[in-house]
Design a protein that fits this description.
The protein is built from twelve helices and six strands. With 249 residues, the chain is an alpha/beta fold. Bound molecules: calcium ion.
Length: 249
């Protein structure tokens, strides 16, 4: 029995598992590995305001994890009462990417490299799972986090039909890593991603890296929430040990 046991037991009961034996970590990118949400929300807000669609910058934190096409379609329905055409989705998302790339380069999240190295040293597989299709960030993964994600261990918006909060991205990641839900942990920073991870059946860890309140992450299905990435990185060895040693009948 330690600090983490009650969280693990609550997860096991809710999902009707007897134990979690982590063999792979399925890891979100924006807001988890990169401090990129400030730029994303700024680019979205500029794009939609210019397009004549009323919105606030803050609301884009809540859409984090959706594919770009899904965010565009959601706002079209809310404000224009119709779906966006495929051409509109493509044109607007391209423009959003250009606006994003005009902003100062995003930095790796403090603590993320330590967290990833701990997962690797513990022998866990790693799969990148992102709703993004933005090459400018995805292509930096190898430079910023060398040796962590094999080229075929990445799920992006191009590999899925349904983005987060649908469980498909994480289910496909489990297939890539050849693991079951109870052999998986998900690492996320936003409610839609957490919902997707939990619906896929994984022990889903929320990490606070921006303005999203802890309660939102718990409501979305987080098994446990850490207050920062450095705090999570420090606790990770102990959490992994607790997962391996906690079992219910
Ligand atoms: Ca995210």
């Amino acid at each position: 029995m330690n600090l983490f046991t009650p969280y693990i037991v609550r997860f096991l009961e809710r999902h009707h598992f007897s134990r979690v034996t982590p063999r792979a970590a399925l890891i979100d990118m924006d807001g988890t590995l990169y401090d990129s949400m400030t730029n994303h929300t700024a680019a979205w807000h500029r794009l939609m305001t210019e397009t004549g669609i009323p919105c606030t910058r803050e609301e884009f934190y809540l859409y984090e994890g959706r594919t770009g096409a899904s965010t565009i379609n959601y706002l079209f329905n809310r404000e224009l009462h119709r779906d966006a055409t495929d051409e509109e989705k493509e044109t607007l998302y391209h423009k959003k990417t250009l606006y994003f790339n005009e902003l100062p380069p995003v930095k790796p999240m403090p603590g993320a490299l330590e967290m990833l190295n701990t997962l690797r040293d513990a022998g866990l597989g790693r799969v990148l799972v992102t709703g993004s299709g933005q090459n400018s960030v995805i292509s930096r993964i190898d430079r910023d986090f060398p040796g962590i994600f094999a080229p075929d261990m990445r799920i992006t918006s191009r590999n899925v039909t349904h983005g987060k909060p649908h469980p498909e991205p994480f289910i496909r990641a489990m297939q890539l890593a050849r693991v079951t839900p109870s052999q998986s942990i998900v690492i996320e920073n936003a409610p839609l991603g957490i919902e997707a991870g939990d619906r896929a059946g994984a022990f889903t860890i929320g990490v606070t890296t921006g303005p999203i309140p802890v309660e939102e992450m718990e409501r979305a299905g987080a098994a446990i929430v850490f207050p920062s990435m450095p705090a999570f990185a420090e606790a990770l060895p102990s959490l992994l040990l607790s997962l391996l040693t906690t079992q219910i009948d």
